[in-house]
Write a structure and sequence with these properties.
180 residues, mainly alpha, 11 helices, elongated, 0% strand
């Protein structure tokens, strides 16, 4: 009930203020709507906020995270690509972008963005795993093997990582090595 009161108050505030002054309130309303599972309104508020305050890259990144939930992966990729690279040099941004691109069936773009994430944080295991998947979907099996080896090096006791490596090695005809 408190959350509904907060949403109503934020809506009134947004309606009363000049549009240019509403960006931060729209972001807060979007977060409240997300918590209440009101995805369409959250998306609408997140889309409006960056137009009102173009320097608000955090809201754009949040929108890029929300859109795949609404099955709008291509939109998410476009939004995240629009975030100026100098503004957000975090590997997480590239990782989220790569996830959206992979979901939108853009594996080559996803592979490029996982590489950007790994250039910033070389041992970021989720980026290595996503790079492997993007490489496989791009038909870059030799690169997929390299990423699988990297995952095993990062997590030597991870049986699933070893199985993925064995599978990838089998794809490139190196079954002998896959047995070890």
């Amino acid at each position: 009930h408190k959350s509904e009161t907060v949403r109503v108050t934020l809506r009134r505030l947004i309606a009363a203020l000049p549009p240019a002054a509403t960006a931060s309130y729209r972001r807060e309303l979007a977060l409240e709507c997300l918590a209440a599972r009101e995805l369409p309104e959250a998306e609408a508020q997140l889309r409006a906020a960056p137009r009102l305050n173009p320097s608000d890259t955090e809201t754009a990144v949040l929108l890029g995270q929300v859109l795949p939930t609404a099955r709008k992966t291509a939109d998410a990729a476009a939004v995240l690509r629009g975030v100026p690279p100098g503004r957000v040099g975090r590997p997480e941004l590239y990782l989220r972008l790569a996830q959206a691109e992979l979901a939108a069936n853009q594996p080559a773009a996803a592979l490029a963005d996982t590489r950007r994430a790994l250039a910033l944080t070389p041992n970021l295991a989720p980026a290595v795993a996503l790079a492997r998947e993007a490489a496989l979907q791009s038909g870059e099996t030799t690169q997929a093997v390299a990423f699988s080896r990297r995952l095993v090096a990062l997590h030597p006791r991870d049986g699933a990582a070893r199985l993925r490596l064995a599978s990838d090695l089998g794809r490139v005809g190196e079954q002998g090595e896959a047995l070890y």
